[in-house]
Write a structure and sequence with these properties.
Blueprint (H helix, E strand, L loop, with lengths): L6 H9 L3 E2 L11 H6 L16 E8 L2 E7 L2 H7 L8 E6 L3 E2 L2 E9 L2 H6 L8 E4 L6 E8 L9 H26 L3 H15 L6 E4 H4 L10 E8 L3 H16 L7 H9 L3 H7 L9 E6 L15 E8 L5 H18 L2 E2 L9 H7 L3 H11 L8 H7 L10
Antiparallel strand pairs: 1-5, 2-3, 2-4, 6-8, 6-9, 7-8, 7-11, 10-12, 10-13, 11-12
Helix pairs in contact: 5-6, 8-11, 10-11, 12-14
Bound molecules: flavin-adenine dinucleotide (FAD).
The site of flavin-adenine dinucleotide has 21 residues, from helix 2 and strand 4.
């Protein structure tokens, strides 16, 4: 596929042949080159980048533009998630897989442990943590054993896209952006939101319909934290404590959280964000299986959980302060990483410690782009690529 094709175009074309992509994210508006360059993922599988079999990249050789084909080795692992630093990806090859159907149902759980213990039965599930009340819902999904579309599937998708992505978010936006009332927001989540979440409604539909939602309807900003699978429960407990303290200045964190923060010298930093920001969007937790890449967020031998923190409020200064605190504390306490294609507050000295193969990645970038023509301020700041004095072409 051409690098500039959107995932939506690709899925539509593949579906005409009863095929689909091996992995997709929540939306299909991204280009395939942009989605893979930043490690875009869905849930219950490795991200899309992992599946790239070969790539054609326009880069420079001795100052002249050339087209290079990459189909194996560390170069392939690098180009699968390259942040644009290896050159212009003009073509990507993926294995198409037979189109499959998915069964989907929202379930309320008593705890995150209980929700995650269901993964073996519903491996494509994602979990939602409802802010301020901290109830847990699982969107329990598995590959269906039938290819029959449920009669109410269209209504279920309308419920998600119109009811939740538009209605639920409009109410939330009204509270955080127009009324700016944290008290009403707390009431919304404690009393009204649980009634808007319909559980137990089970439907089956085509994978590219049920795995995707209209999440792009409203402008928002997101930071996505990644934690290794083995640390998710303690990381989620810690997250709730920090967001509770950010919501209410007088919230007393547990002894365990205090000890953790002291261990990493962040106890004072918590005081700077106390009472500043009420997190207002449901937090989606997705599992990403290990990816064979050099620097995508789920690269390495273990599975990861991605925890998404979204804001619809502006100005965003308080969100920046709280999520910067979380990005740093998650790294120091749980070996956490941050999604490349979302808001990214970390610098190269931290990234260096997060990605053991970063040096190999930088060497490959220099080989493909000796004059640093494809570098921008972002990759220099986060990957530690040095700006190069440019020769004329
Ligand atoms: C509403 C919304 C929902 C999202 N949902 C998810 C999700 O479910 N899962 C997830 O993981 N992420 C998700 N994302 C993040 C999104 O997938 C990434 O930000 C992705 O990079 C966007 O793709 P794009 O085509 O817009 O890329 P762009 O923003 O245009 O580019 C991103 C980067 O990719 C590189 N790039 C782009 N094109 C090329 C090329 N041809 N050659 C070389 N490098 C290139 C460049 O470095 C560029 O800076 C979401 C984002 C939004 C806005």
């Amino acid at each position: 596929m051409g690098g500039g094709c959107t995932i939506g175009q690709i899925l539509a074309e593949l579906n005409r042949h009863e095929l689909t992509l091996p992995s997709i994210g929540l939306i299909t508006e991204q280009t395939i080159a942009g989605a893979t360059a930043t490690g875009t993922h869905g849930t219950g599988k490795p991200g899309i980048s992992h599946f790239i079999q070969s790539a054609k990249v326009v880069c420079f050789e001795e100052g002249r533009p050339v087209l290079r084909e990459i189909s194996d080795g560390d170069e392939l692992r690098a180009v699968r998630c390259s942040l644009g630093a290896m050159g212009i990806v003009v073509e990507l090859t993926f294995p198409a897989i037979p189109q499959y159907f998915v069964t989907d149902r929202l379930v309320r759980f008593g705890s995150l442990q209980e929700a995650l213990s269901r993964e073996s039965q519903t491996p494509l599930q994602q979990v939602f943590l409802i802010p301020l009340g901290w109830q847990i819902y699982g969107q329990c999904r598995e590959v269906a054993d039938t290819n029959r579309i449920s009669k109410t599937s269209w209504l279920y998708r309308a419920y998600w896209n119109v009811g939740l992505c538009l209605g639920f978010v409009t109410l939330m936006k009204l509270l955080v952006s127009v009324l700016r009332s944290r008290r009403l927001l707390r009431c919304y989540y404690r009393w009204l939101a649980p009634w808007l979440i319909v559980t137990g409604w089970k439907v089956t539909d085509r994978s590219d319909r049920l795995l995707v939602i209209k999440h792009e309807s409203f402008r928002h900003l997101e930071l996505e934290l990644f934690v290794p699978q083995s640390r998710i429960i303690e990381a989620a407990d810690f997250l709730i404590e920090i967001l509770s303290a950010a919501d209410r200045a007088d919230y007393r964190v547990s002894g365990d959280t205090r000890r953790r923060l002291e261990e990493v010298n962040m106890a004072d930093a918590l005081n700077d964000i106390r009472g500043k920001f009420s997190h207002h969007c449901p937090i989606c937790i997705r599992k990403i299986l290990p990816e064979d890449t050099l620097i995508s967020m789920a690269s390495g031998d273990q599975a990861w959980y991605a925890i998404s923190l979204i804001t619809y409020a502006q100005p965003r200064d308080d969100f920046y302060a709280v999520t910067t605190f979380l990005a740093n504390s998650f790294f120091r306490l749980f070996g956490g990483r941050i999604h490349w294609g979302k808001w990214f507050p970390l610098e190269a000295d931290t990234v260096e410690q997060q990605y053991p193969e970063l040096d190999r990645f930088r060497k490959i970038c220099r080989e493909f782009d000796p004059a640093g023509r494809f570098q921008n301020e972002f990759v220099q700041r986060t990957l530690g690529l040095q700006p190069v004095v440019r020769e004329s072409v």
